[in-house]
Amino acid sequence: MRFVFVMDPLSRVTHDKDTSFAFIRAAQARGHESYHCLPRDLSIEGGEAHASASPLLIGDAPPFISFAGGPERLRLADVDAIFIRKDPPFDRSYLYATLILERARRCPLIVNDPRGLRDANEKLYALNFPEWTPRTLVTADRDQIHAFVRALGGTAVIKPLDGAGGLGVLQINERDKNARAIADMMTNEGHRLAMVQEYLPAVVHGDKRVLLLDGELLGAILRVPRDDDHRSNIHVGGRVVSTELSPRELDLVRAIAPRLRADGLYFVGLDVIGERLTEVNVTSPTGIQELGRFTGTDPAARVIAWAEEQARGRSARA
């Protein structure tokens, strides 16, 4: 099969952590061809989506991932699967990429669905499941933010709607003289929406990244924050340990899985703190290599096997 990965430059790919690398390695091990392109390499001609994409090769020594040849012009309807793995932010370039990929719907499988990506802001999408989320406010009104923080007991977490990797996630405390400056900065003095959430004390014990494939549990890892940081993201120094889901967390997965499937969000990473859902990561969820090391399994190979089955089945029905 031929898989196209719409993602960041290879210079940003780490062989021992990157989930996209794990997918490409698993695809190569199963005899498939993988191609790389940037969002700017997408185009529309004759009403159909194309990509200028280069074949990839996974090796056992540095640089571990490289191009196996020059760019080829691919009509995306002719490939077997497209993996959209571009890291946030979901900016104008990302939006245009999803709109171009709408023209590739004759491709048997797109992970994740372009329409689902547009509808699923990673912060706001969790609010579709209010029974599972912490108390949350989304506003640009700074007075409303300060009143909400007071109502929560004086401490909350404030974050941008378009951030990733823990960037811009701040703790805000009404007794801190920086609180007003923080609200001003996060809202661009009342002109930009921000999210304010109830502070969950359980975060000191870690933040679970729960990986789902087509609504089914692949597994989970626990990201534990440094002693000098409230954020547990791997990107900012959180350490990773093995974990299991509690019965309530398993109920959470079962509760939201039907909506994820309906929206074409097949490979998803949930962020769960103290059995509460804080984010739904859909653009380029990470953690699959860490999960594989802790479980002694190859979850990336499971994803690729699933993609094979889906692509064959959809091609047969077409």
Structure description:
With about 325 residues, the chain is of the alpha+beta class. It is about 30% helix and about 30% strand. It contains 8 helices and 17 strands. The strands form 3 sheets. Strands 1, 2, 3, 4, 5, 6, 7 and 8 form an 8-stranded mixed beta sheet that branches. It has a 5-stranded antiparallel beta sheet with strand order 15-14-13-16-17. Strand 7 (about 80-85), helix 2 and strand 8 (about 110) form a beta-alpha-beta unit. Helix 1 crosses helix 8 (about 300-315). It is globular.
Total beta strands: 17
Distance between the termini: 17 Å
Helix content: 25-40%
Q: What would the principal axes of the Cα set say about the shape?
A: globular
Order of helices and strands: EHEEEEEEHEHEHEEHEEEEHEEHH
Radius of gyration: 20 Å
> What is the tally of helical segments?
8
Q: The biggest beta sheet, please?
A: 8 strands, mixed
Beta-strand content bin: 25-35%
- Structural class category: alpha+beta
Could you tell me the mean pLDDT? 95
Low-confidence stretches: none
Question: How would you summarize what this structure contains?
Answer:
The protein has 318 residues and is α+β, with helices and mostly antiparallel strands.
Break the fold down into its secondary structure elements and pairings:
Layout (H helix, E strand, L loop, with lengths): L1 E5 L12 H11 L3 E5 L4 E4 L2 E11 L6 E3 L4 E4 L5 E4 L7 H10 L7 E3 L2 H6 L16 E4 L2 H10 L3 E6 L9 E4 L5 H8 L7 E5 L8 E7 L2 E9 L14 E4 L4 H16 L4 E7 L2 E6 L6 H8 L3 H19 L1
Parallel strand pairs: 1-2, 1-7, 7-8
Antiparallel strand pairs: 2-4, 3-4, 4-5, 4-6, 9-12, 10-11, 10-12, 13-14, 13-16, 14-15, 16-17
Helix pairs in contact: 1-8
